């Protein structure tokens, strides 16, 4: 912690890192008006995370975008989790590839479905 001078109101405050504004000014900045990226209207966010105006269409558009992003993330995690088949070395998301599992399953004497 270091004593800093707020660049906005000039008050001394304790802050760490790159903080150059006191708590009050930072909070005020968070409440400043933003421009909705979907309709271009000005709005006052209620929370720091609010990025669109309160228009239903814009909220919807944004949540669609977030959903797409989440999907994209899921996909990249899947790729990241790509493994290689223990038996034949082909890329797979499982311990063995589907082919090798089928091979193993077919050699089983019982007909029970084993969930992997
Ligand atoms: Zn300040
Ligand atoms: Zn909007
Ligand atoms: Zn295999």
Explain what you see.
The chain is an alpha+beta fold and 116 residues long. The protein folds into 3 domains: 1-30, no CATH class; 33-81, no CATH class; 83-116, no CATH class. It contains 3 helices and 6 strands, in the order ββαββαββα. The chain has helices at 23-30, 56-80, 98-107, and strands spanning 2-5, 12-15, 34-35, 42-43, 83-84, 91-92. Strand 5 (83-84) and strand 6 form a beta hairpin. 4% of the residues are buried. Bound molecules: zinc ion (3 copies). One zinc ion binds next to helix 3.
Summarize the structure.
Strand 1 and strand 2 form a beta hairpin. The chain has three domains: 30 residues, no CATH class; 49 residues, no CATH class; 34 residues, no CATH class.
Topology of helices and strands:
Elements lengths: L1 E4 L6 E4 L7 H8 L3 E2 L6 E2 L12 H25 L2 E2 L6 E2 L5 H10 L9
Antiparallel strand pairs: 1-2, 3-4, 5-6
Bound molecules: zinc ion (3 copies).
One zinc ion binds next to loops.
């Amino acid at each position: 912690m270091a004593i800093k001078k707020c660049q906005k109101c000039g008050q001394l405050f304790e802050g760490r890192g790159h903080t150059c504004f006191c708590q009050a000014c930072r909070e005020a900045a968070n409440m400043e008006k933003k421009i909705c990226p979907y309709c271009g209207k000005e709005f006052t966010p209620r929370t720091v995370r609010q990025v669109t105006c309160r228009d239903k269409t814009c909220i919807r558009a944004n949540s669609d975008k977030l959903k797409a992003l989440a999907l994209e993330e899921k996909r990249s995690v899947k790729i990241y989790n790509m493994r290689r088949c223990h038996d034949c070395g082909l890329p797979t998301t499982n311990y063995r590839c589907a082919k090798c599992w089928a091979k193993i399953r077919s050699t089983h004497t019982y007909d029970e479905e084993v969930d992997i």
